[in-house]
């Protein structure tokens, strides 16, 4: 699969939610891996019903991409009740949380490249349990 094909596949597979089939989940993971090889790093976001669900999903996404969100980083977050948006930037090793009023639930992956010929783009929302 080429980079343009992976990009297009992810655009077709976004916003499926928890009902994504096994085949669709495999296609998402394959496309994410191809784009990962063309980028330098990611930022990862989660839109979730609550903080615990969001952190669990964020940890699984981060682990898949080779990042480790340390326990002290996660425990330093303020506690927020209700729906949340979480974002992790591995370059700055920062974790952000805020309330979230939107209807979408799922993971967002932004590909970042330092050079102009690398891949840059944002895709999602993907199932929160994509890597469980």
Q: What is the CATH architecture descriptor?
A: 2-Layer Sandwich
Give me the number of helical elements: 4
The coarse silhouette is globular
Q: What's the arrangement of strands in the largest beta sheet?
A: 3-2-1-4-5
Number of structural domains: 1
The chain-level structural class is alpha+beta
Q: Element order, helices and strands?
A: HHEHHEEEE
Radius of gyration: 14 Å
The stretches of 5 or more residues where confidence is low (pLDDT under 50) are none
Helix fraction by DSSP (H/I, runs of at least 4): 25-40%
- Please describe the biggest sheet, giving its number of strands, its sense, and whether it closes into a barrel: 5 strands, antiparallel
Strand residue percentage: 25-35%
User: Class in CATH?
Assistant: Alpha Beta
| Number of strand elements | 5
CATH third-tier fold name = Dihydrodipicolinate Reductase, domain 2
Mean pLDDT equals 95
Task: Spell out the CATH superfamily.
Answer: Dihydrodipicolinate Reductase, domain 2
In whole angstroms, the N-to-C terminal distance is: 24 Å
């Amino acid at each position: 699969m080429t980079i343009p094909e992976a990009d297009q596949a992810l655009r077709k597979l976004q916003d499926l939610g928890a009902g994504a089939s096994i085949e669709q989940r495999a296609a998402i993971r394959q496309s994410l891996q191809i784009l990962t090889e063309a980028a330098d790093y990611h930022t990862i976001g989660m839109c979730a019903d609550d903080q615990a669900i969001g952190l669990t999903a964020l940890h699984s996404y981060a682990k898949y991409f080779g990042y480790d969100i340390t326990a002290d980083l996660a425990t330093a977050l303020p506690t927020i009740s209700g729906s949340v948006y979480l974002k992790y930037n591995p370059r700055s090793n920062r974790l952000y949380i805020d309330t979230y009023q939107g209807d979408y639930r799922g993971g967002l992956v932004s590909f970042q490249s330092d050079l102009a010929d690398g891949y840059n783009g944002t895709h999602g929302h993907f199932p929160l349990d994509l890597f469980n």
